[in-house]
Design goal:
Chain lengths: 284, 300
C-alpha cells in the first residue's frame, strides 16, 4: 500500500484534500455547490478537446474551467445563479460531446477523468498539482476577509466597497484553479465530493470560520486517505468510497448537531447565538 | 459504437424515413415538452441544481439496472424517486441548505454510479455501458419503449398540473402559501416527484446533457419573455420542442459539412440552439428583465 507508485497517490490526494478543504469552506458558505459541480464536469470537455488537438490535458481543463467561471459570473449578473450555472455546464458539455464525437481513442480515459484514477498518478503530475494548489491557498489567504464578508453579509460588503460580483468572479476563478489542479489526478466526481461533504460536515460542528476551515481540511484528509486504503484493499473504485464516506460524515455531523441542539435540526437555523450565523441569517 | 451512442455522430442519408430516427424524434419531442413544462417551475423555485443533479444521479440507477439486466429507464426512475425523497428529507427550505443537501446527495449517488459502472465494465468488459448511461442513447431506443415513455411523461405533467396553483403560490411566497393552508412539504415532494420523472425520462432518452439543457434553457428564456406562469409554461414547451427539432435537423445537415462525413452530435446542436436563443432573448429583454427579476427576487 505504500510502494513507490502508491506514494504518488498519497501525495497527490493529500494536496487535493487540503486545497479542497479550504476552498470547500467557502463553497458551502456561499452556497456554490452547483458551480463546484459544474466547473469540474464542464472542464472535462476541455480535456476531451485538448486530447483532440493533441495538447496537454491540464491546458484544456484550465482554459475550459476559466471560461466556465467567467461565463457563470457574467451570466449570473443577469439571471439567477443556478440558471446561469446550468446554462454554463450544458454549453461546456455540449462542446464536450462534439469533441468526443470527433475522436475515437478517448473512451477509456472518460471513466478515469470522471471517476478518478488516483492510483495511477505519475510523478510528473505531482509538481503542477502542488504548484496550482499553492496558488489556490495563497488566493484564498488574500481573499479571506472580503470573501468572508461578501459571503455572509453581501449588503454590508457592498457598502464597504466590496463588489459582490467581483468576489463571485474571484471565487469562481479559484474553483476553476482547483478544477485544473484536481481533475487530472482525482477526477471530477472526487473533487466535487471533497469540496462539499467535509466542509458541510465541519460547519455542523463549529461556526468559527477558521476552525471550520481547519476541521474541513482534516475531514477531507481522513476521507481521501481512508478511501485510498479501502480502494486499494477492496479493488473497488475510489470514487465510490469518497462519495459514501462523504455522505456518512455529513449524516453523522447532522445527527451530532441535532442531538446537541435538541429539536432544531437545520444547520442554518440552529446556531442562535453565533455571530457568523447571525451574518448568514441576515444575508439569506 | 462510441460515436453512435454519444448521439448521432454519424447520421446516414434517409434520416427521416428510418424508423429508429422517427422514434428518436418522437421521444425527443416528448422529453423536450415535459422538460419545458416542469422546467418553468424548476427555474422559478430555484431548483436548477436539483434538476441537473437528477440527470446525473439517475446514472447510478441506470448502471445498476444494466447490471441486473433490466431496462435502464426503470433504474433511472426508481433511483431518482429515492434521490428526490432523500433531497426533500435532508434539504431545508433555505436555498443554501438545499444547495448543500443536493450536493451531498449528488456526490453519494455519483459514488454509487462509479461502483456500478465499474461492475458493468468488469462484467461485460466494455466501456460502451459507461458512455451509454452517461450520454443517453436516443438512437438506440427500442420503439416498444415509446408507450412507457409517453405514459410516464403524462404522469409527470399530470402531477405538475394537479399541483399547479399551490406550486405557483408556494414558489412565489411560501409564507402566503402556508397561511392559505398549503402544505409546503407535500407540494415540495410532489414537485420533486414530477421533476424526478421528467428528468429520468429525458436523461435516459436524450442524455444527461440535453436533459439539463431542455429543463433550464427554454424555461429561463420563456420567463424572460413573459411574466405569466401559464404563458411561460407553453412558451418553454414550444421553445424546447423547436430547439430539439432544429438541433436534430442541423445534426443531419452536418453530415455533409465535413469531407469525412462524420456529422456532429445532436446534443451539441440542441444545446447551442437553446443557449443562443436564450442569449438573444436575454439581450432583447434587457431592462425589462432586470426590473422583473428584482421584483420576483423580492417576492421570493
Amino acid at each position: 500500500m505504500f510502494s513507490q507508485f502508491m506514494i504518488n497517490a498519497w501525495e497527490a490526494s493529500t494536496i487535493v484534500a487540503v486545497v479542497a478543504g479550504v476552498v470547500g469552506f467557502f463553497t458551502v458558505l456561499r452556497g456554490s455547490s452547483f458551480a463546484a459541480h459544474a466547473l469540474p464536469n464542464g472542464a472535462f470537455a476541455g480535456a476531451a478537446g485538448a486530447s483532440l488537438i493533441g495538447v496537454n490535458t491540464i491546458l484544456g481543463l484550465g482554459v475550459f474551467s476559466l471560461f466556465g467561471a467567467i461565463g457563470i459570473a457574467s451570466l449570473g449578473r443577469r439571471a439567477r445563479h443556478d440558471v446561469a450555472t446550468a446554462l454554463a455546464i450544458v454549453v461546456m458539455l455540449g462542446l464536450g460531446s462534439l469533441f468526443l464525437s470527433m475522436t475515437t481513442e478517448y473512451a477509456p480515459e472518460i471513466f478515469s477523468l470522471l471517476f478518478g484514477e488516483v492510483l495511477g498518478v505519475s510523478s510528473s503530475e505531482l509538481l503542477p498539482t502542488a504548484a496550482i494548489g499553492a496558488i489556490c491557498i495563497v488566493a484564498i489567504i488574500f481573499l479571506y476577509r472580503p470573501l468572508l464578508l461578501s459571503s455572509v453579509m453581501p449588503d454590508v460588503a457592498e457598502s464597504r466597497g466590496i463588489k459582490g460580483h467581483r468576489m463571485e468572479l474571484a471565487f469562481l476563478l479559484v474553483v476553476a484553479l482547483v478544477t485544473t489542479m484536481a481533475v487530472p489526478v482525482v477526477g471530477t466526481l472526487l473533487i466535487f465530493s471533497l469540496l462539499i461533504s467535509p466542509a458541510a460536515a465541519a460547519r455542523s460542528f463549529t461556526n468559527t470560520p477558521l476552525t471550520a476551515m481547519g476541521l474541513s481540511v482534516v475531514i477531507a484528509l481522513v476521507t481521501v486517505w481512508s478511501a485510498i486504503a479501502l480502494s486499494y484493499t477492496s479493488n473497488l473504485p475510489i470514487g465510490f468510497f469518497v462519495g459514501a464516506i462523504g455522505a456518512v460524515t455529513y449524516a453523522i455531523s447532522r445527527g451530532w448537531a441535532a442531538r446537541r441542539h435538541g429539536r432544531r435540526t437545520s444547520p442554518v437555523t440552529r446556531h442562535r447565538g453565533s455571530a457568523v450565523h447571525a451574518l448568514v441569517e441576515a444575508s439569506d | 459504437m462510441i460515436r453512435a451512442s454519444i448521439g448521432s455522430a454519424i447520421i446516414e442519408p434517409g434520416f427521416f424515413s428510418s424508423s429508429p430516427v422517427q422514434v428518436a424524434l418522437i421521444v425527443g419531442s416528448v422529453a423536450a415538452f415535459v422538460s419545458g413544462v416542469v422546467g418553468v417551475f424548476t427555474v422559478v423555485r430555484g431548483q436548477s441544481f436539483a434538476g441537473h443533479s437528477l440527470a446525473d444521479t439517475g446514472t447510478a440507477g441506470g448502471s445498476a439496472a444494466f447490471l441486473l439486466g433490466v431496462s435502464p429507464l426503470y433504474g433511472f426512475i426508481v433511483m431518482n424517486l429515492i434521490v428526490a425523497g432523500v433531497m426533500e428529507l435532508i434539504g431545508i427550505r433555505r436555498p443554501r441548505g438545499r444547495d448543500v443537501a443536493t450536493g451531498i446527495v449528488l456526490g453519494a449517488a455519483l459514488g454509487l454510479a462509479a461502483l456500478f459502472l465499474y461492475f458493468d465494465t468488469t462484467s461485460t468488459s466494455t466501456t460502451g455501458a459507461t458512455i451509454n448511461v452517461l450520454f443517453g442513447s436516443i438512437f438506440t431506443l427500442p420503439s416498444s419503449m415509446v408507450p412507457v415513455i409517453v405514459v410516464l411523461s403524462a404522469l409527470a405533467i399530470g402531477v405538475t398540473l394537479f399541483l399547479y396553483r399551490p406550486l405557483i403560490l408556494s414558489s412565489l411566497s411560501s409564507d402566503l402559501a402556508a397561511a392559505r393552508g398549503v402544505s409546503l412539504r407535500l407540494v415540495g415532494i410532489g414537485f420533486l416527484v414530477a421533476l424526478a420523472l421528467a428528468v429520468s425520462l429525458s436523461a435516459i432518452t436524450i442524455g444527461a446533457i440535453l436533459s439539463t439543457a431542455l429543463l433550464i434553457g427554454p424555461a429561463a428564456t420563456a420567463l424572460r419573455l413573459t411574466k405569466r406562469t401559464g404563458a411561460a409554461v407553453v412558451t418553454a414547451a414550444v421553445i424546447g420542442v423547436g430547439a430539439t427539432w432544429l438541433g436534430v435537423l442541423l445534426a443531419y445537415d452536418s453530415y455533409y459539412w465535413t469531407p469525412s462525413h462524420r456529422g456532429w452530435p445532436v446534443s451539441f446542436f440542441v444545446v447551442t440552439v437553446v443557449f443562443v436563443f436564450y442569449l438573444v432573448v436575454d439581450f432583447a429583454a434587457g431592462h425589462h428583465a432586470t426590473a422583473r427579476r428584482s421584483v420576483s427576487r423580492g417576492a421570493l
